[in-house]
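Researcher: For the record, we're logging two predictions in this thread. I'll number them. Prediction 1 follows.
Model: Prediction 1, sequence and structure:
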Amino acid sequence: MMSNIATHRPLLSLFHFLLVVVLLVIVLPAAAAAHEEETCEPGDTPVGRFQQYLRFNTAHPNPNYRGPVSFLASIAASLSLQIQTLELAPGKPTLLLSWQGSDPSLPSLLFNSHLDSVPVEPSKWSHPPFSATRSPDGRIFARGAQDDKCIGIQYLEAIRNLKENHPHFSPLRSLHLSFVPDEEVGGFDGMAKFVESPEFKALNVGFLLDEGQASVGEEFRVFYADRAPWELVIKAAGDPGHASRMYDNSAMENLMKSVEVISRFRESQFDVVKAGKASNSEVISVNPVYVKAGIPSPPNGFVMNMQPSEAEAGFDLRMPPTTDPELMMQKIAQEWAPAARNMTFKVIQKMLFHYSCITMISFLCSHYYWLEMPMFIHCSLCVIIKKGPLRDFMGRPLITATNDSNPWWSIFKQAIEAAGGKLSKPEMLASTSDARFLRRLGIPALGFSPMTNTPILLHEHDECLKDTVFLRGIEVYEHIIRALTSFEEVESV
């Protein structure tokens, strides 16, 4: 018996050795990879709550609003904030949280963020886009990490810190936090309806702080205006024919003439930017987003020997608030889609007014230049969707002053400096935010997201935000909230 054991002992030793090797080769790298994939954060920390919020899939076309609203309301309840949930459009809640000030007669502050996010292409992400994966270097990957779920949680965490670390602090002015739906699709069922509600009017808002963008440098960026977005769709009709023929008035020829004219305008605007005479947000941008033409041939092709009778192209058009909308409409009608190519216009109002369709169409067909509310301009050949106003209720460009004439600006700037930060030159936002709906009411509004030394990744694959940048933003908002809610008088805005 002893001899048999002695005989097999080398074999046992070899087996143990191979087992150890297998563990080293397979198990340990897998564990290391798991550690590299995500650094866990407890759920009861600011970063943990940020990650929980990011894990709600609020991407269009089917955003989950109920889950995050319930989650945010639970945080608000733990901070003893007043909570209102408004359903101004079916299935699209707006969450309103309030920290009441000691003097409710003073105009209040509204800090806004949106619940929704743009769609994702999961296969093109390094991590699942709603996993909120945190890498070893602190980057948190998720759709909405920068745009703009970060600021919503930062607002709440700043209030938490003020309540816990400064128990004797009491705001003079009331502070309200709004979490609105549908910003990414125009805001018509979100902020547009909220500002028309009795609940909003009861807030007596004097100043709005909304989303901004990241800064790749050391200075914080701040935005005093948005560009207004129009969606332009040109549809061309023409005679069909054999693909070998060359003839006038084909659909593709009519469309391409418009595309060429629009491209020349785009180049002229871009040349101004390249020459350093203006920033990207200070010119009119027009970018092609799709082209659709051809006769489908199943399963995935097109008929190659026939010219189609219809063709279509879509463009994203963004205009600074100083743009004259009437002149822009004339340019589209006379140059981009002229009557010589059968490009005519009829106007149908997007459903923000409550008139009969016949009355509205009749009115708008002769007066569409006067209107500043979001609208559809539609015909068989051209469609324009105006997704926001360019002027306020007094006919002024939607611009918030960033000088001493605006006392809110002075207090905001001082708060940033008190937080150890510095503002870059105020900018016009190249894209669009919900702030335009309040500017239209004459309410001063600034766009601001406290992210420095951060690549701009909103709407991109692998959108992410570093944990240290997120935490630094909470500190900045603490200073902003203390300064703005303690501001006693506003002589004029």
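Researcher: Logged. Prediction 2.
Model: Prediction 2, sequence and structure:
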Amino acid sequence: MQRFKAALSAGNGVHLRRFVRHCRGVCSLPDAALTPADNLDHQVLVEGKAWSRTAVLNRPAVLNAFTTAMGARLQKLYKSWEDDPDVGFIVLKGSGKAFCAGGDIVSLYHMINRDNCIYNGPDCAGKIDDCKDFFRACYTFIYLLGTCLKPHVAILNGITMGGGAGVSIPGTFRIATDKTVFATPETLIGFHTDAGASFYLSHLPGHLGEFLALTGDRLNGSEMMASGLATHYLHSSRLPLIEEELGKIVTDDPSVVEASLDKYGEVVYPNETSVLQRIELLDKCFSHDTVEEIIDSVECEAGRTKDAWCISTLKRLKEVSPLSLKVSLRSIREGRFQTLDQCLVREYRMSLQGITKQISNDFCEGVRARVVEKDFAPKWDPPSVENVSKDMVDQYFSPLSEFEPDLELPTELREAFTQVAHLVTSFVFKEGGFHSWNDLNRSGCSTL
């Protein structure tokens, strides 16, 4: 933590690129924007290179919003490439101006609300099953990525939010650019920080993860580098150069891939207005045990200092779903002591609770207000954090029913990446950060 604070100081010369080596989302476009080709295999294209394969998320009209079909196809492709001795490493990128704006929440919204569907209501089972399929496909792919045996490069050029971050950050390398916009904005739509976010956010420096999860605030490319969410940075105009370089190399050695990325990478630092320049104040406010205490702390600092960041943070905390705030805070805190697969299994339970209206209608109300009708005036239920009971939060973390199966991940087939903690101690903390995301997953490390 001290290295992180020192690196932000002017003139210290610390290379932020490696502070943490390897430590969803809103699509606001209408269904009318979809094209006939927007289905099945067309949603993920494949490019073949000398010793690598590139998967291209291909729904540019809706900012590459993630679908069930995308998750299923990516699983099939990655399993095939992992078993293919002629494929040394994998690249993932998006088409158009986004990498991936997160899960296709508009489709989920219409599935849930069609014919006033309520869980266990008439004609509802099939629609809820479709929603389950979506989360299952997405979370399973995230686990496959996080335990992938081959080097993985994600090119995060453009919007990278929610599920978009989930399907990229668990990989070996993440390239941020001047066009990268990262966020986990689930509390704004009455949901929880999912798609593995409770794992990777909980391992960010200090309490930055809590701040990002609760407020949904954005980070740019340089801030992703400083916090460890990205491993490399370069200007978007130079992306063709790095893609050409990656297309030429013949290797399955991550150090060789890294060297190629290093050749084009740039050293960048957060500017003076960055939230990372306020890391001590952020930690002071967001280290509290409860949402109420966090809000009180921010409000106190805003009143005392009149600081613009405190005022805007307080405003955001009072705008988002109160239930989502409490659920997301607990999720991040639990994620700090869980492995990736444990976080994904828990998040799957939470996602099903979030969409079925058994506890609250906040998810559908949030999507309606911010994405569908866009009146930006959601009516949250409960309307304030004081009205969110412990029982409501506890239920959010419970199975839908006694007979509801949990998410099944191939942990036995990929067991080496969730256990074998003794292999980590010799090289996890390289240059003040994690040497690889798989190392972090193996170690079950709780803090930096």
